[in-house]
Structure formats: structure tokens, C-alpha cells
Amino acid sequence: MSLFYNGEASKYLSQFCAKELPLPSTTNILQHFGMKIEITNQDLLHSFMVYLVLPIFLFNLMTVWMVPFLLRVFPNKRQQTLLLSKDKKVFELNQRLIRGFLASSIAIHSAYYTFFSKSDPIPGANYILVSSSFFHLSDTIILYLYRSSDKTMVVHHLIVIILSWVLMIVRKSLSVAIVASTNDILVPISTILSWLYSYNLQNTFFNLFCSVLSVLILVFYRMPSNTYLAYTIIGKSDYSIYPVALLLAGIVFLEIKWARSLIKICMKNFNVLLYSKKVK
Fold this sequence. Notes:
Blueprint: H1 8-13, H2 41-73, H3 78-86, H4 89-115, H5 121-145, H6 151-170, H7 175-182, H8 186-198, H9 205-234, H10 242-279
Keywords: Membrane, Transmembrane, Transmembrane helix
Protein name: TLC domain-containing protein
Organism: Heterostelium pallidum (strain ATCC 26659 / Pp 5 / PN500)
């Protein structure tokens, strides 16, 4: 697969295995539950603590100190900060901030295993999948904790969680996970956009730049890569991995919806900035 061009891991995973991978020779906690997934207990525990326990802990901690911190650091935005606190919007900002950092971590790990790693690719791919599933589970729990109304994000998270475990249990096409997980690079940008909107900075050139960049990543990277991967899976005669293609199709549908919304926002911001420039 042309998306992979360097490293033993990428060469191996790019073959898009048509037969089941050999079972791991080592045992771990998951194998006691009938899931023969090649990942060490140490990596499993690390993934659990960093991507599931830590985000929930940080969210609860940030609900206590974030508002006082913002009031102290941005005294000129005091009224807006108090309004965000009153409307409980600050909970969403906390959630997005945590999600942005963790998603960046997963994206960096995925890019490393895709393009640079020369180690055994299977444990690395499984670590990314386990981490991604824990990360999306913790984010779903946080969405529930502050009673988020964003149902599409919950649906997206559930799809990713199921997709991650299907890939590991079926033990085929792990290259899908490597490419798909690099898509999380969009999350930090959406975090920046959320903070800009919350502080009424949406009609700025920086906001327009971030919005356009988000559209470009969605339209020219995330959607094509997920569509191509789904198409590749459908082209295989192995029906056991067809659910992966269906899940990817669901993600592409959500990405089309988000891209349309972002394009409308970009056009609106551009018109406002253009009008304000003409007035001056």
C-alpha cells in the first residue's frame, strides 16, 4: 500500500494480511478473557492509566481550578470566563483540552509506527489500538459527566472503540489502524477553534486559518484515507473483516457532515472579515 513508505513495520502492515496472523507466544491479561492480542501487560497497564484513568482524573481536577486559573491569567476576559462558568461551557473546554493533548500523542505514535519504526509492528499496532479505544472511552465518559449534547461525537467514539477491538481480535488489516489513528492530528486544531469561539474570537484571521486547515485535513486526508481503506477491505474475499469497512464508512459519513459545517463557518468568517476590512 503506497501510504506506507519506510520502516519494517510499515512494510509488514502494508501487505494487508489475507490470512490470520500467528498467535502470540506470550500471555497477558486479555488472553485470560479469550482475547489473544499481542501486547505486554506493561503496555496494557500503561495504556489503561494514561488514556483512560488520567483523562478522567484531569477532567475532575480541572473543573475545580480551571475557572480561577483563567480569571487570574486573563483578567481582561473576566466577564466572558464567568459566563462560560455559569453556562457550564467551561466543562466542554476542559474536555477538549484534554482530548487535544491525548489525541496528539496517539497521532504521533501512529505516525512513528507508520513511517519510521523498524521494530516488530504487531505489538506497536495493538498498543495504538488499545490506547485509542481507552482514549475514546474516557472521552465518552467525560462527555457523559458534563451532560454533553454532542451526540455525533458519542457515535464517533463508539465506532472507533468497536473498530479498534474488531481489528485486534480478527488479527488482520492492522494497517487500517495505523493510518486511521494519524487522523487524530485534527483534534488539537478543533480544540483551538472551540476556545476561540468561546471567547468570541471567531472573526479573526487565526480562526479562519484554523478552520480552513481543518477542512483541508478532513477533505484531503481523513476522508480519502478512510474511504480508500474501506474500499480495500471490501475488495478482499475475507468476509470476517467486512465490519471494519462498515465502521469506516460510518466515520466517513460523520466526517462529511463535519466538513460541510466547517465550510459554512469558513465562508461566514471570510465574509465578516472581508466586510470589516472594506468598512475600514
